[in-house]
Amino acid sequence: MAGQVKMTAIASRQSNPAGGASSTAGAASTQAVKMKQTTSLSQRWKGSRNLLPALIFLGLFFFAPLIGLLLRGVLEPTPGLGNYEQLFANSAYARVLFNTFSVAGLVTLFSLLLGFPLAWAITLVPRGWGRWMLNIVLLSMWTSLLARTYSWLVLLQASGVINKALMAMGIIDQPLEMVHNLTGVVIGMSYIMIPFIVLPLQATMAAIDPMVLQAGSICGASPWTNFFKVFLPLCRSGLFSGGLMVFVMSLGYYVTPALLGGAQDMMLPEFIVQQVQSFLNWGLASAAAALLIVITLVLFYFYLKLQPESPVGSNHAR
Fold first, then answer.
1. Rg (CA), the chain
2. 86-316 architecture in CATH?
3. Which terminal Cβ of the chain has fewer Cβ within 10 Å, N or C?
C-alpha cells in the first residue's frame, strides 16, 4: 500500500512539472517582495535617524513651550475654559478681536490692490528695469521695521508732510487725525506688507506663458475678458499664498499697531503684552495666544485645500 502511494506521488509530479515550477516561482517572488520591503523600511529608518537632532530641537524649543502655553490657558487661574469664555463674552475683549480681524482684512485687501499692479509692472517692463524695481521692493523689506514705522509716524502726524501738503493744496482746512487710530495702523501695515504680496505674485506672473494671453486675444476675447478669464485665474496661486501670508502676519503684528495705533484701538498682540506685563494675567494671555495659533492653522489648512497641487487638496482626494 505504501509503495502504491509513493508511486502515485511520483507520477503526479512527473505528470504536472509546470505546476510545481509555478508554485516555486510564486514563493520566490513573494519572498523577494518581503525582502525588498524590509530593506526599504530599514533604509528609511536609517535616513530618519539624521532628523533626530532637528526633532529634539523642535520638541524642546517649539512644542514644549507651545504645550505649556496651551496648558496655562486652561489651568490658570482655575482649571477650565473660563479664560476663553471671558475672551469672547467680555465686550472690551470682543472689541480687541474685532479690531484684529478688521485690520488684518483691510491690510490684506489694500496690499493686494497695491501689490498686484506693482508685480504686473515688474513683470512687463524690460528685464533691467524690472530687476531695479524688484530690488527697490526688497530694499524696503530689508529696512528696519522700527525705522519704517517711525517714518510713517512722522509723515502722518498733524504737523507732518502729508497734512501740510493737503492743507497747502486747499483740500482740507484742519489736519487729519491719521495716527493713534486704526487709520494709521492700516496705512503703515499695508506699506510694510506690500513686498510679501509682490514677491509671490511676480514669480507667478513671470511663469505665465505670454502665448496663452495671445491665444485668448486671437479667439476674440476683449482685453478685460482676457484679464479676468485667463490672466487672473492663472495668478490664483500667487494671490492665495501672498494674501494668506499677509493676513496671518497682520494678525500677529505688534510694533506697527503699538506705535501708530491708540489705546482704544488695541489689537490682539498688544492685548497679550498688556495682560502679561501690566496685569500678570498669564491665563488670559495664553488663551489669546492659543486663539491666534488655532486661527493660523485653520487658515493654512483651508489654503492647502484650495490649492489644486496640494497633497491635501480636493483634486487629490480619493
1. 31
2. Orthogonal Bundle (1.10)
3. C
